[in-house]
Amino acid sequence: QVQLVESGGGLVQPGGSLRLSCTASGFTTGGYVMSWYRQPPGKERELVAFIIGDKTRYADSVQGRFHMSRENDTNTALQMNDLRPEDTAVYYCGARHSSYNYVPDHWGQGTQVTVSS
Fold it and tell me: What phi and psi values does residue 85 have, to the nearest 5 degrees?
C-alpha cells in the first residue's frame, strides 16, 4: 500500500528555517515524480516544487529560498529558508509514478507550517 507521511512542520519566526521530510512506504521513490504542495488558509492548494530524476523546479514565490532533494530511496526533503508569513500553510507531499507528470496521484496527510512573530 502506497503511503506518504510528512514531518518537520511547526511554528517559526520570519526569517527562520524549517526542514520538511516526506517518508514513503509501500514503494521506493525512484521512477516517481515527487512534489511538495501547500494550501494557505482560505486558499487553493498550490505547487511549491517537484523533482523529476535529479532535476528540480520551483514556484516563483519560493525560488532561491526553498530547496527540494531526494535523501534516499524513500525520503524526500524540502529545506525552507528565509521563511515569510505568506509561507504559512499546510504542506503536502505528493507522488506520481511517471517520468514527466508532476500532478500527484498519491498524497500525504499534510504538515502545518506557521510563520509568525
Answer: -55, -35
Q: What's the distance, Cα to Cα, between the start and end of the chain in Å?
A: 40
- Residue 111 and residue 77: Cα distance in Å, rounded? 13
Q: Is the dihedral of CA 51, 56, 61, 63 positive or negative?
A: positive
- Which residues, including other chains, have CB under 8 Å from residue 9's CB and lie 6 or more apart? 18, 20, 91, 111, 112, 113
Q: What is the pLDDT of residues 22-73, one digit of tens each?
A: 999 988 888 899 999 999 999 999 999 999 988 999 999 999 999 999 999 9
Task: Tell me the three state secondary structure of residue 108.
Answer: coil
